[in-house]
Amino acid sequence: PSNLFFFSSSRCLHVLVLCFQIQVRPWVFELATSSLTGQAAPDFTQHVEAQLQRPDALSRKHIRSYQLYSRTSGKHVQILGKRINARAEDGNRFAKLTVETDTFGSRVRIKGAETGYYICMNNRGKLVGKKRGKGPECVFKEIVLENNYTALESVKFAGWYMGFTRKGRPRKGSQTRQHQREVHFMKRFQRRRKQQQRKFIRVPTSPRHRSKRRRGAGGR
């Protein structure tokens, strides 16, 4: 009987602790109660989706630096303040991008290292540059495709992608699809500029005068 009382008390205490934690982590309570009652574990998909809808302020931010090569224009994405296009050559200072992670779900914010402006998408699907990129319109989801290219889908406008035409002009998000070449990018490290070689300067020198050889006393 004493063992039964101890088992019942510990089990009740366990349930009380879990009830207290329900205010902070509701899904923890669901998992614990299901394990005690023998029921199937709950589906965590809804909790993951809910977490993806808000910024992650707890995890450490991961920052990367690279260029985005456009498959259609053959050039690199550049941020010229509020204007954005894909016409930059390899190594252009405006093509250097600083990519900041937003959450654990491959969501990123893309900022120009030279201008400090973020790539954002407005309600009309147009790509614009903003000085402050904290809003959801400035967050994109990285999607690695089967052809090893990367697509960037807008988080605020699902199904709309960052894309550029052959001339490097931004394409409206409502006119983009994941299979289109216009939305395919390749990450590239910025090429290091070769140091300019110093020109060889020839310093003029005065001609040397050969001194005449003096003949000795016994010479002819």
Tag the structure with descriptive keywords.
Trefoil (Acidic Fibroblast Growth Factor, subunit A); alpha+beta; signal; six-stranded antiparallel beta sheet; Fibroblast_GF_fam; two-stranded antiparallel ribbon; 3 helices; single chain; secreted
The helical percent reads: 10-25%
Q: How would a crystallographer describe the biggest sheet?
A: 6 strands, antiparallel
* Element string (H = helix, E = strand): HHHEEEEEEEEEE
- Measured between the Cα atoms of the first and last residue, the distance is 140 Å
What structural class is derived from the secondary structure elements? alpha+beta
Widest sheet: strand ordering: 9-8-5-4-1-10
Give the C-level CATH assignment of the largest domain. Mainly Beta
Number of helical segments? 3
| Residue windows where pLDDT falls under 50 for at least 5 positions | 2-7
* β-strand amount: 15-25%
Integer average pLDDT = 78
Oligomerization state? single chain
CATH-scheme architecture of the largest domain: Trefoil
CATH topology of the largest domain: Trefoil (Acidic Fibroblast Growth Factor, subunit A)
The total tally of domains equals 2
Shape: elongated
Work out the number of β strands. 10
Using only C-alpha atoms, the radius of gyration works out to 33 Å
